[in-house]
């Protein structure tokens, strides 16, 4: 299928494409390995979480990764942490939600596609009403891919936290709806909080540089396999759990 232009007016074709798109796992492994060496993040886990995560991956459990969002460097440091963690086994089988503007430049789009990106048309960029139908389709695509065994990685805060990087900001309902819809399709997803810290930042509004992004602290919370029945309850649980993991990442920095 020919790659469609990533535009809101073209959302149906965009999601038809990303419903089935598969990147080269071999290429992804190589790229993630390079990023792992370049950024060299430090990875730690809640007590027992590494073993539980390992077992879930071996069993083929679809993972719903929740990651706090601090800077434009996050996709690269997250990829680096994936290479240096238990997630190495699922590289190439995790879709990553990314804002649509990252798919505009062709060279950058190739990188995002290689990393498993799925475009998100955000209300803050296009207007809440304008993106409603596209958002519903995006969540359906994510749920369908989870039902087939893929993982989904989400920055549930929706935008970079330039307020207080020690506190998880408001979490949107999208991550709850993705999990809820996946469960309706018969999937049994595990929510995994993957929190990161770039260390103390007196002014979080100043962008993190590439050098400052090196050596980031990542912390995996205990995977959650029993989820509430309602999307809003799932989203609230994600925020609480992600905050606990962020506290761990900050402490381990």
Uncertain spans: none
Q: Look at the structure and give the mean pLDDT.
A: 96
Q: H/E element string? A: HHEHEHEHEHHEHEHEH
* Order of strands, widest sheet: 1-7-6-2-5-3-4
Number of H/I helices: 10
By oligomeric state, this entry counts as single chain
Question: Approximately what portion of the residues adopt beta-strand conformation?
Answer: 5-15%
In helices, the fraction of residues equals: 40-55%
Radius of gyration: 17 Å
Which structural category do the helix and sheet elements fall into? Answer: alpha/beta
Distance between the termini: 44 Å
The CATH H-level homologous superfamily: Glycerol-3-phosphate (1)-acyltransferase
Major sheet attributes: 7 strands, mixed
Characterize the structure shown.
- The protein is an alpha/beta fold.
- The protein has a single domain (8-252), classed as Glycerol-3-phosphate (1)-acyltransferase (3-Layer(aba) Sandwich).
- The protein has 10 helices and 7 strands.
- It has helices spanning 11-20, 25-39, 49-59, 74-83, 106-114, 123-126, 128-147, 174-184, 210-213, 231-252, and strands at residues 42-45, 63-66, 94-99, 117-120, 151-154, 190-197, 217-220.
- Helix 5 (106-114) links the parallel strand 3 and strand 4.
- Helix 7 (128-147) packs across helix 8 and helix 8 (174-184) packs across helix 10 (231-252).
- It starts with 10 loop residues before the first helix and ends with a helix.
């Amino acid at each position: 299928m020919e790659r469609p232009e990533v535009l809101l007016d073209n959302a149906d074709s965009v999601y038809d494409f990303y419903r089935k798109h598969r990147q080269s796992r071999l290429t992804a492994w190589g790229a993630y390995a390079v990023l792992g060496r370049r950024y060299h993040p430090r990875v730690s886990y809640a007590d027992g979480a590494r073993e539980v995560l390992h077992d879930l991956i071996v069993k083929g459990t679809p993972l719903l990764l929740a990651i706090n969002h601090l800077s434009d460097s996050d996709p690269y440091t997250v990829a680096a942490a994936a290479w240096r963690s238990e997630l190495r086994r699922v590289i190439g089988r995790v879709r990553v939600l990314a804002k649509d503007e990252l798919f505009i430049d062709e060279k950058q789009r190739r990188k995002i596609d290689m990393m498993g990106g799925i475009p998100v048309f955000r209300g803050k960029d296009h207007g809440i009403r304008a993106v409603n139908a596209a958002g519903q389709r995006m969540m359906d695509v994510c749920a369908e891919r989870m039902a087939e065994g893929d993982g989904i990685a989400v920055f549930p805060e929706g935008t970079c936290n330039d307020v207080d990087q020690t506190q998880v900001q408001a979490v949107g309902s999208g991550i709850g709806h993705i999990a809820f819809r996946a469960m309706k399709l018969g999937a049994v997803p595990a929510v995994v909080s993957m929190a990161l810290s770039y260390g103390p930042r007196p002014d979080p509004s100043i962008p993190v540089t590439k050098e400052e992004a090196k050596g980031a602290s990542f912390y995996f919370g205990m995977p959650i396999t029993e989820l509430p029945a309602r999307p809003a309850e799932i989203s609230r649980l994600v925020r609480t759990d992600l905050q606990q993991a962020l506290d761990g990442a900050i402490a381990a920095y």
